[in-house]
């Protein structure tokens, strides 16, 4: 299942994010940046040691206390098809105020980093909707609004992909997205 939106600048699809042939894939990381479960574990397994080595360097230099929620950093893609991985830390869902803004920031900061590096294609997972339990319909509204606003102001990014593990998740996204 694949669907183009916004004249092809957005692609919604079902698949394995780690196999995407784009300039950067985005990792739903945790603040420690040392890998973990879910899509984070899959990216480190598929991309190999080079990603972890760069994450360690980032922890030693820029973020000794860990990467804050809503921020993003970039590393090599290692053995992945994607040349880069952008690591961002999604909010853990709790229903408390500010979670939407933190999730939106993950998307906006990742896109800004990609654009600053001259990257043109970027693929996202559904950040925070797994282990971090953000409601999937709500995450779809937040993610689509953040990406739409970014693309309206930036024309260097050619395509943003939303890659879902299941058909059901892709459908939930399409039903709630504001594209
Ligand atoms: P978080 O901790 O931010 O919730 P998770 O990795 O637990 O991150 O889940 C985020 C989303 O990524 C979930 O919807 C999950 O189904 C999905 N996911 C997990 N592995 C992959 C993968 N290889 N490709 C695409 N999506 C994936």
Shape: globular
Please write the string of helix (H) and strand (E) elements. EEEHHEEHEHEH
What is Rg? 15 Å
Instruction: Give the % helix.
Output: 25-40%
Describe the largest sheet. 7 strands, mixed
Bound molecules: adenosine-5'-diphosphate
Oligomeric state of shown chains: single chain
Number of strands: 7
The CATH class label is Alpha Beta
* Discrete helix count: 5
Tell me what you see in this structure.
With 179 residues, the protein is an alpha/beta fold. It has a single domain (2-176), classed as Leucine Aminopeptidase, subunit E, domain 1 (3-Layer(aba) Sandwich), CATH 3.40.220.10. 39% of the residues lie in helices and 20% in strands. It has helices at 38-47, 49-61, 99-116, 136-153, 167-176; strands spanning 2-5, 10-14, 24-29, 72-76, 84-89, 121-124, 159-164. A seven-stranded mixed beta sheet has the order 1-2-7-6-3-5-4, sandwiched between helices. Strand 4 and strand 5 (84-89) form a beta hairpin. The protein starts with a strand and ends with a helix. The model has no long low-confidence stretch (mean pLDDT 98). Bound molecules: adenosine-5'-diphosphate.
């Amino acid at each position: 299942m694949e669907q183009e939106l916004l004249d092809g600048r957005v692609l919604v699809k079902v698949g394995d994010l780690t196999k995407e042939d784009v300039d950067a894939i985005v990792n739903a990381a945790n603040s420690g940046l040392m890998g973990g479960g879910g899509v984070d574990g899959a990216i480190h397994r598929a991309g190999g040691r080079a990603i972890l080595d760069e994450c360690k360097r980032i922890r030693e230099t820029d973020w000794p206390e860990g990467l804050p929620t809503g921020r993003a950093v970039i590393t090599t893609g290692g053995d992945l098809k994607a040349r880069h991985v952008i690591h961002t830390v999604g909010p853990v869902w709790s229903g408390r105020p500010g979670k939407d803004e933190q999730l939106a920031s993950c998307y906006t900061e990742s896109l800004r980093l990609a654009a600053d590096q001259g990257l043109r294609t970027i693929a996202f997972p559904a950040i925070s909707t797994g282990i971090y339990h953000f409601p999937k319909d709500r995450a779809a509204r937040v993610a689509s609004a953040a990406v739409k606003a970014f693309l309206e102001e930036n024309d260097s990014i050619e395509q943003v992909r939303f890659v879902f593990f299941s058909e059901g998740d892709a459908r939930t996204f399409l039903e709630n997205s504001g594209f």
